[in-house]
């Protein structure tokens, strides 16, 4: 049931004059309240979107962290694998360095052996060339034979030409110069003249001395009578024998030289030996092409034979003829030596010995 509230009557209610509403302190206007609500709603919506965005970013961040972690794990695994690979590579590199060192040692050993083989072969070739040069030099100095020296040089040059790769070029050039000088030198037959002297030396001991010859008889025996004669009597035969003995007591002889030298057997031996030495010295001068010594020795040998030996003997006459023919021989000028070739050979051997010493010092 509803109670009815009694409405006051106008008589009983005093008249009230309308008063304009006054501003109340502390009361928020409606528009401000609406604005605040709108702001709150906007803030809520923004907070919702922000929260949603943050959750999305957090999820993305978590996803990316997981991806980065996986990548880090993969990178760590890869780095571990690379470290293992580097260690393996280092081990392999170390083993390869050891193998390379061994290979280098083998290569050096092979090079050393190859150099030794080449050097031994070259040294053998140089030894053969040196032997040929020494032989040619001896032929020039002792025999004066330029042909044999040229032959020795030609043989040595041909030996070098077969093995030369340019390293023996200075030696070959020096040998060519010596060969050209020998070709221009006069080619006298000194060996043949030396052989004639040797033959003459062999006949010295058989030459008769001047004081040993028998004097010729003063007259020739009476020829036998052609016509038959009577038997001589005993007195006639005795007279003939006595006359023959008397004729032998005194001998008259004409000598070509007034004073034949009288020598004792000992002096005769030394005379023959001195004559031989004189001829040997002349032969050496001939081979050395020393014209002055050659002519002087031949002159003295001829004088000794004419003075001390029997010039009427056939052997002495042959010896004098040989001496005259030899004296007319002109030895000519001295032959050029092989000094340039010998010097080039010595320089080449010195240059080849220097690398050997350096290599031994390095080892």
Automatic annotation (TrEMBL):
The keyword Membrane applies. GO terms for molecular function: methyltransferase activity. Residues 342-363 are annotated as: Disordered. Keywords: Membrane, Methyltransferase, Transferase, Transmembrane, Transmembrane helix. InterPro entries: HemX. The chain crosses the membrane at residues 30-51. One of its GO terms (biological process) is methylation. The keyword Transferase applies. It comes from the Bacteria. This is Uroporphyrin-III C-methyltransferase. It comes from Methyloversatilis universalis (strain ATCC BAA-1314 / DSM 25237 / JCM 13912 / CCUG 52030 / FAM5).
């Amino acid at each position: 049931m509803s109670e009815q509230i009694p409405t006051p009557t106008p008589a009983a209610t005093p008249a009230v004059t309308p008063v304009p509403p006054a501003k109340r302190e502390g009361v928020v206007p409606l528009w401000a309240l609406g604005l605040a609500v709108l702001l709150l709603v906007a803030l809520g919506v923004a907070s919702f979107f922000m929260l949603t965005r943050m959750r999305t970013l957090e999820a993305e961040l978590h996803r990316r962290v997981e991806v980065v972690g996986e990548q880090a794990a993969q990178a760590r695994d890869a780095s571990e694998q690379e470290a293992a690979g580097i260690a393996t590579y280092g081990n392999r590199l170390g083993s390869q360095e050891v193998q390379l060192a061994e290979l280098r040692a083998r290569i050096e050993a092979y090079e050393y052996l190859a150099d030794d083989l080449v050097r031994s072969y070259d040294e053998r070739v140089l030894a053969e060339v040196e032997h040929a040069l020494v032989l040619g030099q001896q032929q020039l100095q002792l025999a004066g034979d330029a042909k044999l020296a040229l032959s020795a040089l030609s043989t040595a040059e041909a030996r070098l030409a077969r093995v030369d790769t340019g390293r023996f070029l200075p030696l070959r050039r020096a040998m060519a110069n010596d060969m050209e000088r020998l070709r221009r030198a006069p080619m006298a037959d000194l060996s043949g003249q030396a052989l004639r002297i040797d033959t003459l030396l062999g006949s010295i001991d058989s030459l008769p001395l001047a004081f040993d010859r028998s004097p010729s008889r003063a007259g020739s025996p009476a020829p036998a009578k052609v016509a038959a004669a009577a038997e001589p009597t005993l007195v006639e035969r005795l007279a003939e024998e006595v006359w023959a003995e008397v004729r032998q007591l005194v001998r008259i002889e004409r000598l070509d030289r007034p004073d034949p030298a009288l020598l004792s057997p000992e002096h005769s031996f030394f005379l023959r030996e001195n004559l031989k030495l004189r001829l040997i010295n002349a032969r050496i001068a001939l081979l050395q092409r020393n014209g002055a010594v050659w002519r002087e020795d031949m002159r003295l040998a001829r004088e000794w034979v004419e003075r001390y030996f029997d010039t009427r003997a056939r052997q002495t006459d042959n010896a004098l003829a040989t001496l005259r023919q030899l004296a007319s021989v002109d030895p000519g000028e001295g032959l050029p030596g092989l000094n340039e070739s010998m010097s080039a050979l010595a320089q080449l051997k010195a240059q080849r010995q220097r690398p050997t010493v350096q290599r031994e010092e390095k080892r």
